[in-house]
């Protein structure tokens, strides 16, 4: 009997272990313009061109979301380019088995840089169940059926409204801001003023929900009249006393969004200033608005936003007021935890993502051990070399470069320029694999 024919040797090229990405810029009106925008500087450095000085550069998207998907630079891919999402569908092993099993053939996270010149909308992101319902009902407005927990890491001072203020602060608002009290109405104002924390969480939430909904659903005419009175009063009082930070914020928001109910709603929220390197995370159904500054942002792969103020875009006030948790907790501020020399890790309580920040001094080398999920790297500043696995030669890397690195890949960075090389890595939360 003849020997069986030996199997043919697989001569197809193995998938590359390092992919350079071309990433999309979003030119939303609230973005910083031209060279003043970190997004513009990063995208123009990557493309070797100059930004348009008159155009806003708001967000740099690094990921696979169809609204602004990243593509492969032709030189980085064996098949000559195309979308990262399509490449992943052909190379699911790059995600690692655990990630592929949980989230299918796609990145579970979306990585961004934001350059904020003007306040973003008062908004919240729906949980998974609500996202699926909204997407089914209004797919043109709610682009996908996924939830969108997110985390922002300040690059410059970054100002945010996030979550409802404590009950005592809200009572002070009703006592000292008559324009808000008038819109809330005497009945709801009295309930909120008389409620005590020992009455129970649900009763406090019920009073807050009723008062906030009354404010947000007030007629355009009464809102406009209330804001006119508020601005006149604050400008007059500023001549005889020092205005509070929240009052000064409200004055600046009114200049950006005249006659907008979001100006008044700012009194209901925690006002937070993040210093560079500080971060906060925002769960589903929590109200927030980014106000100014620049940040690294990471989130679950989604573009679902329910808006209700400080925006010319579509407002879904009833949905927002009904979906909020009405928790009154000051957000946890993360400062990153050292995981090895030069690297700090920001770990939110969400499976989809974590972010590492690496600041590598000149002539130093760092080895990042293989992880069982995919990673996206951004070179924020400086220049150097990146090397993966056993590659003998590294690839040059400079400000603005973005790389996709598959699961189970060792990465080495070395800084070669005169300045510190700063990198950010987005990956699946390490706790997901433990």
UniProtKB/TrEMBL annotation:
Reaction catalysis annotation = D-mannose 6-phosphate = D-fructose 6-phosphate
Q: Where does Zn(2+) bind?
A: 123, 125, 150, 288
- What region holds the Phosphomannose isomerase type I helical insertion domain? 183-268
Sequence ranges assigned to domain Phosphomannose isomerase type I C-terminal in this UniProt record: 346-390
UniProt-listed PROSITE patterns: PMI_I_1 (PS00965), PMI_I_2 (PS00966)
Give me the comment on cofactor binding: Binds 1 zinc ion per subunit.
Pfam families in UniProt: PMI_typeI_C, PMI_typeI_cat, PMI_typeI_hel
Which CDD domains does the annotation name? Answer: cupin_PMI_type_I_N
| Biological processes per GO annotation | carbohydrate metabolic process; GDP-mannose biosynthetic process; response to cadmium ion; response to L-ascorbic acid; response to zinc ion
InterPro entries from the xrefs? Man6P_Isoase-1 (IPR001250), Mannose-6-P_Isomerase (IPR016305), Pmannose_isomerase-type1_CS (IPR018050), PMI_typeI_C (IPR046456), PMI_typeI_cat (IPR046457), PMI_typeI_hel (IPR046458), RmlC-like_jellyroll (IPR014710), RmlC_Cupin_sf (IPR011051)
Query: In what pathway does it function?
Result: Nucleotide-sugar biosynthesis; GDP-alpha-D-mannose biosynthesis; alpha-D-mannose 1-phosphate from D-fructose 6-phosphate: step 1/2
The EC designation for this entry is 5.3.1.8
Q: Could you name the active-site residues?
A: 307
Which domain of life does the protein's organism represent?
A: Eukaryota
Kindly state one GO CC term assigned in the UniProt record. Answer: cytosol
From the Swiss-Prot or TrEMBL record, give the protein name. Mannose-6-phosphate isomerase
Organism, by scientific name, is Oryza punctata (Red rice)
């Amino acid at each position: 009997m003849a020997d069986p024919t030996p199997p043919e040797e697989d001569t197809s090229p193995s998938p590359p272990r390092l992919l350079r990405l071309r990433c999309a810029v979003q030119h939303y009106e609230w973005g910083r313009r031209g060279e003043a925008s970190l997004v513009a500087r990063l995208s123009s450095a990557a493309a070797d061109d100059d930004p348009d000085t008159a155009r806003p550069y708001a967000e740099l998207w690094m990921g696979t979301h169809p609204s602004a998907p990243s593509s492969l630079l032709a030189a980085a891919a064996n098949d000559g380019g195309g979308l990262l999402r399509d490449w992943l569908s052909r190379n699911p092993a790059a995600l690692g088995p655990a990630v592929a099993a949980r989230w299918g053939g796609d990145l579970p996270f979306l990585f961004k840089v934001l350059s904020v010149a003007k306040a973003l909308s008062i908004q919240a992101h729906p949980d998974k169940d609500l996202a699926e319902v909204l997407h089914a009902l209004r797919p043109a407005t709610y682009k996908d059926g996924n939830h969108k927990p997110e985390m922002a890491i300040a690059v410059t001072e970054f100002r945010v409204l996030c979550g409802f203020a404590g009950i005592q602060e809200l009572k002070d608002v009703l006592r000292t801001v008559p324009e808000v009290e008038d819109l809330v109405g005497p009945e709801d104002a009295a309930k909120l003023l008389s409620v005590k924390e020992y009455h129970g969480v649900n009763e406090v939430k019920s009073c807050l929900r009723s008062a906030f909904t009354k404010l947000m659903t007030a007629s355009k005419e009464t809102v406009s009249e209330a804001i006119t009175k508020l601005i006149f009063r604050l400008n007059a009082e500023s001549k005889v006393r020092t205005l509070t930070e929240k009052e000064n914020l409200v004055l600046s928001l009114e200049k950006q969004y005249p006659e907008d109910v979001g100006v008044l709603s700012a009194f209901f929220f925690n006002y937070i200033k993040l210093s560079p390197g500080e971060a906060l995370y925002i769960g589903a159904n929590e109200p927030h608005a980014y106000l100014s500054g620049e940040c690294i942002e990471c989130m679950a792969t989604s573009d679902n936003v329910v808006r209700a103020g400080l925006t010319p875009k579509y407002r879904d006030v009833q949905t927002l007021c009904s979906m909020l948790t009405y928790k009154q907790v000051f957000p946890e501020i993360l400062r990153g935890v050292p995981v090895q020399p030069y690297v700090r890790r920001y770990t939110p309580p969400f499976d989809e993502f974590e972010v590492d920040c690496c600041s590598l001094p000149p002539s130093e080398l760092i080895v990042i051990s293989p992880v069982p999920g995919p990673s996206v790297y951004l070179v924020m500043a400086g220049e150097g070399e990146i090397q993966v696995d056993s590659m003998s030669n590294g690839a040059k890397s400079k400000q603005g470069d973005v790389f996709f690195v598959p699961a189970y890949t060792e990465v080495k960075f070395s800084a070669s320029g005169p300045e510190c090389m700063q990198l950010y890595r987005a990956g699946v939360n390490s706790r997901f694999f433990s």
